[in-house]
Each structure stands twice: as structure tokens, then as C-alpha cells.
Design brief:
It is a multi-pass membrane protein. The structure is a single chain. This protein is mainly alpha-helical. The chain has a single domain, classed as Four Helix Bundle (Hemerythrin (Met), subunit A). It is about 75% helix and about 0% strand. Helix 1 packs antiparallel against helix 2, helix 1 runs antiparallel to helix 4 and helix 1 packs parallel to helix 6. It is globular. About 25% of the residues are buried.
Length: about 180
């Protein structure tokens, strides 16, 4: 379990903690940085997302190497396939975030449209990450390690955080729309 145990730790850190915090930065209701400028929030968001991506890539590397060492097939379960898709999607989403820093690279696109697409696709990526975490919690390793009520409580974590994130993203979007009028 030594090398393998880094995989769930890094992935939970990436998607349950860092990415969640990176998205909540923009919440007008519960962000710890709500009194900070948008520029500061964007930089903190960027840093947290980059750390989340690095943890996810390390977690993917660990599980790939561990499966290689043990002669096991790669990406054959729903969790494995969804996890791979999630890490690839998060990588693409980070590229989209960099384009927001340099919007002139995207000719014929307004900054408002780029922000809307980035936020919307980011929410899809976050939900994909939560789905992958939940599928991982259905794995044999997790169900033998975490049993009874603890399993249900663990399963509630990504479910509840995804509901909070969806609510905060929609509230932030509506808040911004109202403040523009």
C-alpha cells in the first residue's frame, strides 16, 4: 500500500481541497478573500489551480507507475477512465485560464465570453473530478479500508462540496450580472 497510498492522498488534495478552495475564492458569500481585489483573487485562484493540477499529475503518475510495477492493466475501470479524463480536462482548463491572462491571443472573443466559458467548463471539470472521487470510493481498496457509516460520510463529502460549488458559482455569476446593471 506504500506507493499506492500516495494516489488517493494526492487526488483528494487536488480535487477535494485545492480545487474547491480555488473555486470558492470568487464566492461573494464565503470566500476568505472577499475583501481583496479581483486581481488578488485571480492570482490566488491561479496558484491553487496550478497546485491542484500538479497534485493530480503526481497522483496520476504514482498510480500509473504502481500499476506498471505490479503488472496491472491501466485505465480499465470507470474510476480509472474518469480519472484520466478528469486530469486531462483539468490540464486543458488550466490552458484556458492562461488564455484569460492573455485574452489578446484569442482574437474574435470578448473577455466576458472567455470568462463565462472558463467558469462553465471549470464547473464541468470540477463535477467530473467529484464523480471520479466517488467512483474511487466504490473501489475494492476503499470499500475494504473504509466501512459502514464512514463510507457514507466519505461519499457525502464530494457530493456536498459539488452542490456548494454549483451554488456559489451560480450566485457569483448572478451577483456579477446584478452589479453590472
Amino acid at each position: 500500500a506504500g506507493l499506492f497510498s500516495w494516489h488517493p492522498l494526492l487526488m483528494a488534495l487536488a480535487f477535494s481541497f485545492l480545487m474547491t478552495e480555488a473555486l470558492l475564492i470568487f464566492s461573494p458569500e464565503i470566500s476568505l478573500l472577499r475583501s481583496f481585489s479581483r486581481k488578488v483573487k485571480v492570482r490566488v485562484h491561479w496558484a491553487l489551480q496550478l497546485l491542484a493540477l500538479l497534485c493530480a499529475l503526481l497522483g496520476l503518475g504514482v498510480i500509473t507507475y504502481n500499476k506498471h510495477l505490479n503488472g496491472k492493466a491501466h485505465f480499465v475501470t470507470w474510476h480509472g477512465l474518469t480519472g484520466l479524463l478528469t486530469v486531462l480536462y483539468a490540464s486543458g482548463q488550466c490552458v484556458g485560464g492562461v488564455l484569460l491572462l492573455y485574452p489578446k491571443l484569442m482574437k474574435n472573443w470578448t473577455l466576458a465570453k472567455l470568462k463565462l466559458y472558463h467558469a462553465t467548463s471549470g464547473l464541468v471539470g470540477y463535477l467530473l473530478g467529484c464523480a471520479s472521487l466517488m467512483l474511487g470510493m466504490c473501489s475494492l481498496w476503499f470499500t475494504t479500508s473504509v466501512t459502514s457509516v464512514s463510507w457514507y460520510l466519505a461519499m457525502l463529502c464530494p457530493l456536498l462540496t459539488s452542490l456548494v460549488i454549483m451554488n456559489q458559482v451560480s450566485n457569483a455569476y448572478l451577483y456579477r450580472k446584478r452589479s453590472q446593471h
